[in-house]
Specification:
The chain has a three-stranded antiparallel sheet. Strands 1-2 form a two-stranded antiparallel sheet. The model is unreliable at 131-144 (pLDDT under 50). The chain has helices spanning 13-19, 24-30, 54-61, 81-87, 92-98, 102-105, 119-128, 148-161, 167-174, 178-197, 203-210, 218-236; strands spanning 10-11, 52-53, 78-79, 109-111, 114-118. Strand 4 and strand 5 form a beta hairpin. The protein contains twelve helices and five strands. The protein is elongated.
């Protein structure tokens, strides 16, 4: 988490190396940030990019007491990918689909090249999402959040991030009806499987290579085998 008033203090590995007068190669080998007493990162555990509070690291490097961070409370506190996902009780890959929603993209904050979102925006998105207890169809008066022309590429992006993604995951990320999520997922999975089947793989071999679990293959089979049969017919003609 990053306090909104301390964005200008954030340090990356590269900035820390400059502060310490080290070349990045030396910094990477020595990993001075792993030394006992070095301030803990302010990025979440498992974050792809480590970030530190510059006031803390400056004090440490000067041999002075490391000051405490201010309380991380309030809606303006910035959350990284893992923290935002945890706030919604989903995994980071599911969050990767959610973050494309316009209600989140307009609140996106870049901190040293790392995406963050205000806690308030994340929680507002959580409250607006259809819950697991929603009716099977689209809520009355609600249209698909993703415009029709954007639906396939957005589902494809979700599938790229998580080959085992479920209908419920797509529905939650894009706010579409279950039938729509099932149809588009089946189409894209089927088309990708059919493309690999052209290389001589069986349906199951192609699905395995793409990382699609057996439980999600049923809807894709007809699409894949239909596309494969058409391709063979074209070659035969």
């Amino acid at each position: 988490m990053i306090h909104p008033n301390r964005r200008h203090l954030v340090r990356t590995r590269e900035l820390l190396a400059q502060d310490m007068g080290m070349a990045m190669g030396t910094f990477g080998n020595k990993k001075p940030y792993a030394a006992e007493g070095f301030p803990a990162p302010i990025s979440s555990e498992g974050a792809r990019v480590l970030l530190w509070d510059g006031e803390q690291t400056t004090a440490y490097l000067a041999g002075e007491p490391v000051p405490a961070l201010p309380p991380m409370e309030g809606p303006e506190v910035l959350l990284d990918r893992q923290e935002a996902a945890a706030s919604l009780d989903v995994g980071p890959r599911t969050w990767d689909g959610y973050k494309a929603d316009s209600e989140l993209t307009r609140h996106l904050v870049d901190v040293c090249g790392v995406e963050h979102w205000p806690r308030g925006a994340v929680l507002a998105f959580k409250d607006a999402r259809p819950g697991k207890g929603s009716a099977a169809g689209r809520p009355k008066g609600r249209t698909n959040a993703a415009p029709r022309g954007e639906l396939r590429p957005r589902v494809a992006a979700l599938l790229d991030a998580s080959p085992a993604i479920t209908i419920a995951d797509v529905r939650g990320a894009l706010k579409v009806a279950p039938a729509t999520a099932q149809r588009v997922l089946s189409q894209i999975r089927g088309e990708r499987i059919a493309a690999l089947m052209k290389t001589g793989l069986s349906f199951d071999q192609a699905a395995d290579r793409l990382g699609y679990p057996a439980a999600v293959r049923r809807g894709a089979r007809n699409v894949a085998e239909s596309g494969h049969d058409h391709a063979n017919g074209d070659r035969g003609g």
